[in-house]
Design goal:
103 residues, alpha+beta, four-stranded antiparallel β-sheet, 3 helices, 4 strands
Length: 103
């Protein structure tokens, strides 16, 4: 049995100012989505990622407030365009698409 994975994303800012919010818990998701969420979160080195996050303050920038739980590990941070780390982009894309579908 794999440890549960949970991700919460709040997206705000940008020129249109359209905010999004989504929470995904692997035990409650359809199997393909749970597998993809788990894969994306487990592929991140959360220790290294936390050291390089920088979120510029500008209302026109898209900001992502992200909270992750993977087993006993927890991570929380804010990133903004254009300084989103490349390794975080696939997870942000997956969560954003899920939020749009659930609207």
């Amino acid at each position: 049995m794999t440890e549960p994975v949970r991700a919460e994303l709040r997206r705000s800012g940008g020129y249109a100012g359209r905010s999004l919010h989504v929470v995904m818990d692997s035990p409650t998701l359809p199997e393909p989505d749970a597998r993809r969420l788990t894969q994306l979160v487990r592929s991140l080195d959360l220790t290294r990622l936390g050291a390089k996050i920088a979120a510029p303050c500008d209302a026109d920038l898209v900001r992502y407030d992200l909270a992750l739980q993977c087993g006993g590990r927890h991570w929380r941070g804010t990133v903004a365009e254009p300084t989103v780390p490349p390794e975080l982009r696939p997870l942000l894309r997956f969560l954003t698409q899920a939020a749009l579908i659930r609207r």
